[in-house]
Amino acid sequence: MSYCRFFDGDVYVFMHVSGHLECCGCVLNVPDKPWDLFEARSTQEMVDHLELHVAKGHHVPSFVVPNLWADDAENFPS
Description:
This protein is of the alpha+beta class. The chain is built from 3 helices and 4 strands, in the order ββββααα. It has one domain. It is globular and about 35 Å long.
């Protein structure tokens, strides 16, 4: 499931089949290698990561974080 794609904003976030949230093509992860990725093992870790994007002036649509939290129990069952 995709939470945001590049046509929605400046990030591409989805739940990877291996069980982590991924920020694909992340420009924050490795400065000299801009098309990399970030893997989050919890919803909070991805929310914190997206806050870094916002702090850098990147557009993260307002629906992304609420949708991540709505799916938290499904994405990361206890």
